[in-house]
Amino acid sequence: MDLALSEEQRDVRRLAEDFVAREVAPHVVAWDRAEEVDRGIVKKLGAVGFLGLTIPEEYGGSGGDHLSYCLVTEELGRGDSSVRGIVSVSLGLVAKTIASWGSEEQKRSWLPRLASGDALGCFGLTEPGTGSDAGNLSTRAVRDGGDYVIDGAKMFITNGTWADVVLLFARTGDAPGHKGVSAFLVPTDTPGLTRRTIHGKLGLRGQATAELALEGVRVPASALLGPEGKGFSVAMSALAKGRMSVAAGCVGIAQAALDAAVRYAGEREQFGRPIASYQLVQELLSDIAVDVDAARLLTWRVADLVDRGEEFATAASQAKLFASEAAVRSANNALQVFGGYGYIDEYPVGKLLRDARVMTLYEGTSQIQKLIIGRALTGVSAF
Ligand code: FAD
């Protein structure tokens, strides 16, 4: 693995840094307090090329590599995880999955719009009754002539209230467990699909997270993504790459925590000296720094495996597990450096901790990542 970034990769990282400084950083506190990121950010993310970064050029993307994607995701996560999540879901979970599993017609219909930000995607797997045990979902799609009619509910759907299309997982036929699951592309203006914003989140407050209800939602058979009954494989392939993106976002959180804590430790004086001069404060800083580098290296390894076309799913679980736990630890350590000021939202570290916390929960909790890694090590599924 070559750790030296190419000229293009350095350029794309600089582009993301500039974007965050200009379009995100000035608004972070206000968006968090208002519980809503300015929706205009979607078009801006599209215009700068981030929503189509790894989509092939023939479908309106930039055809970029996955390390570049991680660099952009890290910078967005460093700026605001709510903004980072818009890209991770619409590009990482939805557009990439259409690019991998879609028919030519589905790719032509959705990818250029998703890449430009004219349309936004969301990923509808989790339900009120099934989270970790996703293969056991109960939303049902019944064949009716040339259509499917879908009934059910989805929970905690990132981008949910803003999205134009939901990559939706539903049970078709009578096959048991995950074998009976199929994937569909459902435009969110289809009659019978309603959305409700979930308020009161601990973190990612600016993000449009929704509950979806589906009552008699009729879609043509051409909405099926991948073969009928293969939906669980579609979901798992999406989530493996998604975990790389979450991990990169966590590196961004941890890096932001480090930058803020080092700066503050140099400025804040107690007992007549900057707190940076105390060994116990330096311990907090050095713990964050090691977590940042270790999380980044694990994440870059996944990008390297993806770009070389090698198996990456277990490495993605390792990176997501470590980086998410490291982001929580790092934000918490940074908050300790800030003392009481870390506890109010005029300072950045409290939000970093709140935003980091969900990273150990979604796209597979830390326990689920350990079961994936354990299964790869032993050949025995302990789910
Ligand atoms: P549960 O599965 O009920 O888990 C509860 C606890 O039990 C956890 O600690 C878990 O680790 C543990 N547990 C469960 N099974 C086992 C086991 N076999 N062994 C050991 N421990 C176990 N979902 C989507 O589909 N799309 C999205 O865009 C999306 N965005 C989200 C955004 C936010 C802000 C949040 C909070 C969630 C989002 N999710 C999304 C849902 C997320 O993926 C689920 O919350 C997650 O998979 C966990 O499911 P659950 O909440 O039902 O917890």
Automatic annotation (TrEMBL):
All copies of the Acyl-CoA dehydrogenase/oxidase N-terminal domain together span 6-118
Task: Write down the required cofactor(s).
Answer: FAD
- Is Flavoprotein one of the keywords UniProt gives this record? yes
Cited Gene3D superfamilies: Acyl-CoA dehydrogenase/oxidase, N-terminal domain (1.10.540.10), Butyryl-CoA Dehydrogenase, subunit A, domain 2 (2.40.110.10), Butyryl-CoA Dehydrogenase, subunit A, domain 3 (1.20.140.10)
List UniProt keywords, sorted A-Z: FAD, Flavoprotein, Oxidoreductase
Note one Pfam family from the annotation.
Answer: Acyl-CoA_dh_N
All copies of the Acyl-CoA oxidase/dehydrogenase middle domain together span 122-217
Which intervals hold domain Acyl-CoA dehydrogenase/oxidase C-terminal? 229-377
Q: Which family, according to the similarity comment?
A: Belongs to the acyl-CoA dehydrogenase family.
Question: What is the name attached to this protein's record?
Answer: Acyl-CoA dehydrogenase family protein
